[in-house]
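Table S2 (text version). Query chain:
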Amino acid sequence: MFEELNAAIREEVVGHLFHAQIEPQDAEELQHLQEAQAAEAAGLAYEHDQIAGSQAIGAAALADGGGNGASVTAGGLFAGGGSVATATRTVPQRDKIGRNDPCWCGSGKKFKKCHGS
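Corresponding structure-token output:
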């Protein structure tokens, strides 16, 4: 009886797998979607135009030879010779959890045994 059930489940699963239709997506569109989801999950939403613009400025400075003495960092922003706006992320302040206090996750364990290690 169990073997019949197991065989029926396998047959149904294989049938679903073989009849599935996969719709191809553009790789660039998929990458933008994944980046947007990752940024949204991390709470770091950004404008793509701002990043592309700063990279273009950095590329122009490299092509120019950096004649004004400013160096270009890995992020594509000038390291000197002008003011550059930097993004800062504020972290909400929490009360400091003692090692023997209950863990914030609700597991019931002490913080030092749960997330404190």
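Notes on Table S2: Residues 67-72 have pLDDT under 50 and may be disordered. The chain has three helices and no strands.
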